[in-house]
## 1
Amino acid sequence: MHFYFIIFSTIFALLISYLRYKYQYWELLGVPQLKMNYFFGNLSRIKTIHKTELLHEAYQEFRGKAKLVGTYIFTKPIIIALDLDIVKSVLIKDFNKFTDRFEQRKTVVNVVHQHLFRVEGTRWRPLRTKLTPTSTSAKMKYMFPTLLTVAQQLGEAFSKQLTKTS
């Protein structure tokens, strides 16, 4: 009986040591990090609140204090950029270094998920090459009145639907 207790205690101690080591990643780099649970990282609260609320709380807690905040999904380190200049650098200037920003299942073939922020590097580069010329400031100014009209029509359609259902 004591043998099993010693084995279990040793395995548990090794697991805790491993998790402590993994959860020091941002601390060793000097990046502030969110408080986390040793077994779930920062996902322990994801059951009770939406992930965008968790990100908003991180932003509110570290706004003005840090440009980056570290967090974890299980033991995988994730960085959250709070500074607008860093966000612009990642999404515009250094975009070719950050092509795979989100991890998704390979089997999912959903049209909604096939946009520039979600597709992987092999599909992202040609898609960005095709879409970049459509996003010039002149073309955006030309499209704005049409987008405004469609947005107003969509708002009216939502209002009608809400009055029907209430």
## 2
Amino acid sequence: MSPPSRPLNKKRRETKIEDDGETDISDWSEAKTDGKLRLITFLVGIDSAITRYYNYDEARIRSALVVLMHTVNQYFYPLNIRLSIIDILPVKGTNMGLDDFTAWRKEQRNLIEHDITVLLRHNYEGGIAYSNGICSKNSLMISGFFPEATMNNAWVFMHQLAHVIGLTHQKKSKCKCKLAQDGKCLKLRGFEECSVQDMVDRLSNHTCLSPQSPSYSTNVLVPKRGSLPVCGNGLQEEEEECDCGPERFCDNILCDAVKCRFVLQKAYLAHLIPMGFAVLAFLIVLVLWKFLFFPAFASLFRSFASLGKAEEEGQNREHNENLNDVDVEQAPVRMRPTTDVPIPAENRRTRFSDIYVTMRPISRFWEKFQKQKEGSAAPI
């Protein structure tokens, strides 16, 4: 098929992105967002030239798309935008234009629900899209695809996506970056400075991109069923054990951001997590015992000990007084009173003194412990 013969109308944006050799991932984390996560799903059409290039190998085509989407997600992740491919379809023909692609889409039946339909066109230097077409029947775009130029493919894809969201080449938003970037602050290639902020500001205008319901415990959106697993997009998709986003943004120490696999297998996690809670509970008990219960018990021990000791001394005095009442002349020598005769154990009344005798070792241990503590705390 040949490109459309009629000129582009005002709703179309055709762009050719020059490859400037940039390979570093720009930092868009300084863009101001509303803090809500948004999921944009794509249905991707592959033209005949691309399928021939990969020798009709579906696995190789899927792998190429994973690389493309992984790169694009590196940029959109800090903007709280998650991108996902929910289906891949072959498109017969080459050099297809936007009108041809629109007609192809209308002919398709039972398509999976999605937000944007995109055609990857082999060796096409640039892209074309309906401006502000998202959330309408014009939510389509064509993006050039060079199998060996991953970064340039990503830039072209992002540029057309920005057009579909509604971004124009006129600067409307203001932005500020911590580090001076010589006119590149939050700049999307092919647009003016602050274009990234402008694109983010337009998201709230599109009802079909209403914020999803994230799992607040993991801050991860739930992907649509059957989506192509793309490690690093923050969506735990099929074949993935976890997905904490791009490696530089991953804050889950249990998840390998490169492989989207748990660092430890689930069988180990099932035992480690309860064990971790048990250790934490034990530490809490130790802290409470040291600073709350132990001083209270120690004070109670000292109280019992002092009461027991006082009562024992009282019983000894009473016993000695009884001995003093005995007739010394008539009493045997062995019954003569002394000034310090302890009360026999069989005649002792059982009160606090028994508690004191029982707790005497504990009391002595506590007194020794306190003396050692005071000695170690004494200044040198």
## 3
Amino acid sequence: MHSPVQNNSSSRGSFQRASARHLAVVAACSALLSQAVAQPQSTAADLQACLGLQPDSARLACYDRQAGREAMVTLPASPVVEPGTAEAQPQTPAAAPVVKQQSDSFLSRYWELDDQDKRGTFNYTGYRPNVFMPLHQMREVNRTPSSPTRGQAASLPKYKHGEAKIQLSLRSKVLEDVLLPGADLWVAYTQQSMWQLWNPGESAPFRNTDYQPEAIFVVPTPEAWRNLPLGWAWRMSQLGIVHQSNGQPDPLSRSWNRVYGVLGFERQDLVLSFRLEQRLEKDSDERDDNPDIVDYLGRTEVQLAWSPGRATSALTWRPGSSGKGSLQYDWSYPVNKERPDGLRWYVQLFHGFGETLLDYNFRQTSLGLGVTIFKF
């Protein structure tokens, strides 16, 4: 068993040794702290000394030495991240949207022949010119419309020579890349109305309205077959079927159905198209509103269009039998020269047969003045 005195002495010795160790640690920390505090003062003095050194290379070397010394005693600060938040990551710039460069070909842009001009299905756009002509002057008025199977109409309103002409025409692609490479199927609808706008005495009636739905299969010409002499290019072929009628009761009812083929060519600002039609005959003449319509309107149509700049013009010829047929000239120019795709002035000159179905066998000369309604 140990003595209590001996235990007490031992305890005092242990305490003295621990105190000595603590004092040594405190002294060492004080020395380090003094050195760290004194360092910036020394660095400031050394930097002041560097300021007067010459040449420039010596002064820069002095600054580099002081910067190296300061880097050894200065620790970089660590970024503080708030609890619950992630460190911000550099953002990758969003990729710019890819914009297709349209083709230089007018027919390709109009019918979406080339890949860069494809715009998908079920978008609607203009087909034939969409125009409103409040001034449409006729040389003669067909006051006794007739046909071999429907006879002659009587007791018509007192139509005037001056009226308004309205045409609305839209189309939409319903199938893309079908049956043949790049080939598309379109549907279209055109409505043309003759409105006796300036005839309030007869309550300004619509003299005639023609309705024309159709389906068009468009095939782009393979690149190997396009080039032709004199700078022309064969750009497309079409197959179509069309119904046209005026929706009136007998004896004013007129209608016919056709299938057709089109070849389209272009050369710089010129577009040339050839169209060949075949009428789908009715079962009997009694069911045919106008059995002789082909004699007056023919089976072919040739159109030459020219768009050298802001203006556009087109000449359309339909040769008929024995001097019949028709010739039509269309011209347009932007109302605002800086907005050629906006509102445009429109002029139309027609001579011949078939400006309307009701007048398919009546020779007419007319002049129309107005504006386009939609971009076409």
## 4
Amino acid sequence: MLIDGVDDLDDWNSWARSSSQEITGDSLEFKKKVYQLAEQKGDNDSSKRGGLNLLGCEHTSFRHLIESFPRLLFLPLQSRVKPIVKFLENIGVPKGCVRNILLLYPPILSYDIEKGYQTKITVIGAKDNDLGKMLVKYPWILSPSILENFEKVLDFFDEEKVPKISSSRAIKAWPHILGCSVNKLKVMVERFGEIGITNKKLGHVIATSPQLLLRKPQEFVQVVIFFKGLGLDEEAISRTLGRCPEIFAASMDKTLEKKLEFLSNVGIPKSHLPRVIRKYPELFVCDVDRALLPRMRYLMRIGLSKKDIGLMPVRCVVDYPRYFSYSLEKKIKPRYWVLKGRNVEFSLKEMLGKNDEEFAAEYLGMEEMLVPPS
């Protein structure tokens, strides 16, 4: 009820005085307006849902915010609310995201961010803009419990001999780690260790794909079993994790199984999959519709059938699966037309494996690349 909410302001007023906080004029004025609002509603201590719309905001989230944290109405606008909003904008929080941060974690309005948290983030080499990005991703990093866990997480990474630059990069990229218990992190790190990912290798993995630390252990084990089923041993799986950690954060159904289905459909025998994965594991995180299919269709358009592609495992797709990572318009088509124009027989690796300077020196001299026909 609104009257109860206003009375709650009186309670906070008493608390504020006991904490030697200054009660400024703008907050008292706002409180007076709320009292007047209650009187004008004439709800006889039984205000109805929606009355907060009279404060000038009809958004549902605003209503829930005030109902959950009525004491926010007592915060001085000029000396507290506006400076906090200005500070958030100054550290790189987009204006459109300030609202989300305040709604997700209202207590931020009562914090002295500059003195409290900035000293913490300097430990991981973060700057103001880093703090802004971290707050957008995970506003709760300012809560006392997260700040307390901050030290424990850093100590844990030190115990695991993870390079500080790697742990810092992981936290800045994925601050959700700070909300995870050390015990949970330990379980995932143990799973990594079972396939030989420790120390510097562990640092590389979490710096590249920090969200892996928050996966359920059984989900990680499922991916390991998936690759074992394709014929990879633990050493090969370890190298795959070290080279492309994103694979182990991918969905089994939506990503990994879909890539496997694609490779099967284009005629790649299962016996050749270990070779494909060892040479280019990133294939399993490429987008099928936007990356893999267009490049496969291009091979077919220039005269190679699905059967041809499937029968050339050593010469082409299996030998050089990195083909699927190159741009059709900027690299594949121009080089194809250069080689075709010179009647040169080539494999995908010969066509794409050289950098621009090496390719030009071997096939063009000092000439410019041919423009593919439209």
